Amino acid sequence: MKQVLLPRTLDELWDSLEADPNTAVYAGGTDLLVNLRAGRINTNKLVCLERIEEIRGVRDAGAEAFIGAATTHTNLLESPLVRSEFPVLAKALRVLASPAIRNMGTIGGNIVNASPAGDTLPPLYVLDAEVEITSRKETKRMPVADFLVGPGQVRLRADEIVKGVWIRKAPEFNVHHFEKVGLRKSQACAVASLAALLRVSKDGNIESARLAWGSVGPTVVRSAKVEEALVGRELGIEKLSEVAALVERTVSPIDDVRASAQYRRIVAGRLLLRLAESGHKK
Amino acid sequence: MKIRFKLNGTAMQVDCAADRRVIDLLRENLGLTGAKESCAAGECGACTILVDGESKLSCLMLAAQLEGREITTVEGLASEDRLHPLQEAFVEKGAVQCGFCTPGAVLASLDLLKRNPSPTRAQIREGLSGNLCRCTGYHKIVDAVEEAAKTMQSRERP
Fold first, then answer.
1. What ipTM was predicted for this assembly?
2. Fewer CB atoms inside 10 A, N or C side of chain B?
3. Distances (CA, A) of B152 to A275, B9, B146
4. Which of A4, A34, A37 lies at the smallest CB-CB distance from B64?
C-alpha cells in the first residue's frame, strides 16, 4: 500500500516532500494515476495538491494575472478574467479532453506533465507566460519556454513545485485564436494545434503576431521567422498560404500512432489559413 | 486508513488502503456496482460519480481523496418511490440498451443540467462528450437529457 498525503498548506507540503524525495506529486491525477497503474512510475508515497488553497484560483494583479497551479480547467473556463483577458486560453480549454477530466485536471498538471500535445501549452507560449516555481527556501519565475525542455521533461527539482503561472495581459492583440486537429472531437490528443495572437489594423494588415504550435515538435514550437513573415502582410488566404510553406519547413514532428510526421507538417502550415476567417475582434 | 465522507446523503466512515481506487472502494467494499469500470484510464466515462456535485472519474481518484467530500453515485438519485427525472427520461426515450454507460451518462447529465438547466442539443452532446456509448448512437441519450431538462425546470417553477 502506498501512502497518500493531502497537505492543506505549503508548509505541510514541504514537510511531506522532504521526508522522502522519492515522492510522486499530483493534483488532478488524470495522467499520474494512469501511469502509476501501468507501472511506469515507481513510488511509495503520493502527495496530492488538490487541497492547498494557496495554489488554487485566478487572481487579477493589474497588468498580470496569476493562476494557481491546482486550478482545474473547469475553474479556468468559468473565470470571467480568463474569458475576457485570455480568450486564446479559454478556446483551448474548451476542447481539452472531456468535462469530467476538466473537472479534475489542472493547469499546473498540464504544464509539469510536459506533453508535446498539452492543450494549454501553445496558449501559454503565445501569452509569454511565466511559471512560478517554489520550494521551502525560494520562489522564482521562469518563462514557460525555458521551463519545458522536452517530452515529460521540465526544470523542476524534487523539493520544488510549480505554484502557478503568471500571464501578462495583452490587450493590443485583437485576434485570439486556437485550433486543434485531433482524430475525434472530444477526448482527442492533438495531432497538431495552433494558438495565435494577432494585432490586425482596421484596414486588415497584420501589425504583430505571436504563434505557437502543439504536437509538432518535442515541445511547443514558436518561430520568430514565421512571426516576422506575417507582420506587415494583409490578413488573407494568399499571404497565409505563402507563410504556411515556411511553417512546414520550421516544425519538427514525429510519426506516431495518431499521424505521420509528413501529415503533421502539412496540417501545421494549413492551420494558419483559418486566421483569415478569424475576424478582427477577440 | 479511516476515511470519512458522505455517500448518497449518508455520513460514513470506511477503513481501507489510502491508495485504493474509488471505483474499487465503491464496487467491492461498499457493494455499489452502479459505477462501472471500462477503460480505467479516464477515456470512457463509465465510472463517473459526482464529488461535491461535480462529475469526476472514480477510476482516477484514490480513497484518501474522499475525506470530507460528498459523493453521489447513480444509486443515490432516486427518492424512495420515484426515479430521478433523468432516470425516468432515459427509460422513456429508450436511451438505455446494454446499460453499461448509463450510470455515468446520467451523472454527467446531472452535472451539465446543474450548470446549464436548458442546454441546446449541441451543448448536451458537449456535456456528454466524455461518456462513450457503443449501443445507442447517442441520439436517444440526447433526447432523454432534453426531456429531463424540461421536466426538471417545470418542477422547479412555483
1. 0.97
2. C
3. 42, 20, 10
4. A4
Q: Nearest C-alpha of chain B: how many angstroms from A26?
A: 11
Write out pLDDT tens, residues A68-106: 999 999 999 999 999 999 999 999 999 999 999 999 999
Q: Express each pLDDT in B33-87 by its tens digit.
A: 999 999 999 999 999 999 999 999 999 999 999 999 999 999 999 998 999 999 9
Lookup: cell for B144: 432523454
CA of residue B158 relative to chain centroid, distance: 27
* Interface probe, candidates B15, B43, B56, B69, chain A, greatest A C-beta count within 10 A: B56
**Inter-chain contact A46–B40, Cβ cutoff 8 Å?**
no
- The chain-wide mean pLDDT, for chain A, equals 96
Do the bridges between strand A23-26 and strand A45-48 make them parallel or antiparallel, or are there none, so unpaired?
parallel
User: Would you call A100 and B62 a contact, using CB atoms and an 8 Å cutoff?
Assistant: no
On whether the pTM is more than 0.80, the answer is yes
